[in-house]
Predict the 3D structure of the following.
Amino acid sequence: MGRIAVCTLVLVLSLISWAQPNPPRSLPPAAARAMRSIDPERLRAHVKFLASDLLEGRGTGQRGGDLAAAYLATQFELYGLEPAGANGTYLQPVPLQLITTEPQTSLTVVPEPGSPISLALADDYVALDETGSATSDVDAPIVFAGYGISAPEYQWDDYKGADVRGKVLLMLVNEPRARDPRFFQGDALTYYGRWTYKYEEAARRGAAGVLLIHKTDMASYGWDVVRNSNMVEKAQLADDPDPKLKVAGWVQLDVGRRIAAAGTKDLDQLMKSAQSRDFRPVMLPVRLKAHMVSRVRRAQSDNVLAILPGSDPKRKSEAVLYTAHYDHLGIAPDKPGDNIYNGAADNATGCAVLLELARAFAESQARPARSILFAAVTGEEQGLRGSEYLGKHPPVAPGKIMLDLNYDDLPPIGDVEEAGTYGAERTSFYPTVEQTAQEFALTLRPDPNPGAGYYYRSDHFSLARVGIPAFSVSEGRKFKGHPQEWGDRQAAEYTARHYHQPSDEYEPSMDFSGNARMARFGFVLGWRAASQKPSIGWKAGDEFEAARKRTRAESLP
C-alpha cells in the first residue's frame, strides 16, 4: 500500500472513531485517544451484569446493592485508580435506618360527624413513619395546607403563622402555576415543589403527618411510580437530627376528593384557592386516625469512591467529580410474578458510563491539572441519601470541587443528536458546555418538561446544595435515523411502562451508541473543567450561589 493510501486510511479510521465532524479543540492527543476508546460494548457488559437478577435489583442496604458496590470497587481497582473511601478503601460507609411499612398499617378518615372511611394501603395511599418507631399512632385533625410552601423570596407563605403542631396536613404536589420567571422560576419547578421539601417543612413546623394529593400531571408520573417507590424498604441517614413525620404519605386524587368532601369542602375549589398569595390553611372537620406498623433495621450501604490525582502540584488538591447512583428498588417480596426491580436504564446505564469514564481517564497517558474524582453513590431512590452523605462528607472539600457531572437513566436506544444538560445554564461553565456540544454535533435540548423539576430529582442536587456547580449529562429526544416524535414516544412509553417497574430490564437489542457519545461528551467536559485556570461558579442570583461563596472561602488557605 502506498504512502498516500496509508495516510488516507488513517484519516478515514480517525474520522470513524471520532464519529463527529469537529474533534474537540485543546484536548491533548493522548486524552483524545483515551476519549475515543470509550466503547459501547463495554457499556453493554456492565449494564448486563448490574441489571442481572443476580444483583436482586441493587436494593439499598441489601445483598444485591452490596454486590454492586463490590463490583464497582473492583473495577476502579483494576483501572489503577486510587481509593478515596474510608481507611484506604474504595468504600465510604453510609449509615442508614431502613424502614418498611407493614401491611398491618391502617389509615382511617373520620368526619365530624359521619361514618369513618377506611383507606386501602397501596391502592388508596402509601405512608412511611419517618421516626423509625416500630409502631405509632396518630389521631389528629386534617388541615388543607395548599402547596405547603413558605418562600419569602417569592412573597409566598401557605402557613400564614398557623399552628400546625400535631396536625396532619393535606397538600398539593408541585407549586403555584406561573409564567413569570421571577415567580417560582416560571414554568420550571423549584425545590419548593418537591415532595421532599414539603415533608421537611411540615416536620420543621411540628406537624404529625403529611398527605400529598397525587395528580399525574402535577407529579409528572403515575400512581404506579408512587406505589412502587414506597411499598419497598425506605432508607434514611441514621441518627439524622432533623425532625421527622409519623405519617409521610401520598393519597390518590380520588381519596383527596373524599377527604375534602367529608369536611364539606370541594377539592377543586380548595385547589383553586391555593393558587393565591392570600391562601390560608383550611381546618377540615375531619380527623386522621393512623396506626403505623414498621419493620425497622439499621444497616450500612456504601458509596464507592476513587480518584485520579491531577498533574499540577498546585491544583491537584482540587477536583472534578463524576457521579452516578448504583442502587435501585431491590425486590418486592409480596409482589406476584416478576418482583425484581432490575433497573437497567435506571441506573445501570449511568454506572456503566461512570466506569468507562474512569477507565478512559486512568488509561490516558496525559492527565488534567486537577484531580478527577469518581463516585458511585447509594440510596438515590431513597431520597438521594448516598449523595447527601457524600455532600456532607466529601473526600475533597466542596469548595475545591470545581464541578459535578452526574449520569442518571440514559435510554440505550441508539445514537443521539441532542444532549440534555439541564442546570448547566445556571453555571459559569455553560459557554464551555455549548462549545463542546457544538464540536460533538449535539444540539443542547431545553428541558422538555421544566415543571417536572428533574434538576431536584437526581444526585447532582445534593452536591449543588453544598455549593458545587453540578448538573446531569443526559440524552435528548432526537436520535439518529428517527424523527423527533420517535424519541418523544420512546420517553413516554418508558415512563408509562418501565420507569420503576420490574420491566426495566436488560435486553440484547439495546443500543449503547448514544450512551457512549454521552460518555465521550462528558469526558471532554470534565477534562476542560479540570484543566481551565478559572474556578467554576454559579451565576449571580442563583439559589446555590451563597453556598458556593461560603465553601470557596472555607477552602482558602
In short: The chain is about 30% helix and 20% strand.
